[in-house]
Hints:
Blueprint: H1 3-15, H2 21-32, E1 40-45, E2 51-55, H3 68-81, E3 87-93, H4 99-104, H5 106-128, E4 134-142, E5 148-157, E6 159-162, E7 167-170, H6 179-195, E8 212-216, H7 221-228, E9 241-243, E10 248-254, E11 261-267, H8 268-276, E12 287-291, H9 298-307, H10 316-320, E13 327-329, E14 336-343
Antiparallel strand pairs: 1-2, 1-14, 3-5, 3-8, 4-5, 4-12, 6-7, 9-10, 10-11, 13-14
Helix pairs in contact: 1-8, 3-7, 5-6
Amino acid sequence: MSTFIDLLHQHGAKLAPLLGADAKRAMYAMLRCKTEQQGQSHWQCEHCPHHDQLTLSCGHRHCPQCQHHCTTGWLTRQQHKLLPTTYFMVTFTLPYELRALARVQSKALYQIMFKVASSLLKDFAKRQNKGELGFTAVLHTHSRQRNLHPHLHVLVAGGRYHVAKQQWHHTNKQYLFNAFALAKVWRGRMLDAINHHKALPLPKAIPAKWVVDCRNVGFGLPALQYLSRYLYRGVLPDNDIISTHNGQVSFRYQDSQSHTTKIRTLPTLQFLKLILQHVLPKGLQRVRDYGFLRGNAKQVLRRIQLLLRVPQRVNLTALQTDNNSATRPCPCCQHPMHCTGISRTS
């Protein structure tokens, strides 16, 4: 069992009254995960008499025991979209003074962040009049110490596609947009959008300078792997929890300034609240594709791949799957086992 979920089993009764609705829903899903309460799947080998029963996972996107296939699946799909060009990572950060809004109206605030960041990048590209951008935005909500720190990582392909001319224009390998100009417009548009939202009161003290980072990240794959790390399996891997003794939990993290490994220790309930504060609101889409990478632009992306002589990839796994039926290897003979049904406790 996951160390984090084991702590939830021990302290869930005390923790529940301290949580909001979304965090509480996530906690109860994790407590049921891979237990008889969640239910069982039944398996039968097609070659030998062996049959088996497995407890079901909860499927919650923040559960450390689930969703590994979702992470690998997303990474595979994004790899199929990679182009042979330089990529840039643009990071839009909220200042400390506005992070309190994420505790009370997280869904509204995060939706605004996506809307403003995407429109900003599209407008900067329009000014250069070289065509359409393609980019993927991923919401992260935590710092390395796992404090609340909402920010958007946006992976931008280093080139533009001119739809009318059907031409691809490579971006300068060292420069996408001016980060200081991005930060200035990011601040103005975010404050304007928050001001026009009735449920998001602005604090009195707002810093004059905000931070946007824009840097070259090479050919994209390492950046995709970084973005996928916390998408569907919580914000703290179990192997980073190093101690759970005497009512205290210690975990390690890498300090961003010194690049050294440090240890943070908290009382158990405080630690659990720290992690569960990053549970996203129900229905909020954490990853979004824009421009020629969006879901309904597959034909446009394929034209770009043809222009750049990208070989067409075939998803062999999908071709080998028979009607999407669930299979797993038999531990006795290694032939496929098929799921014959699911039973749940009432």
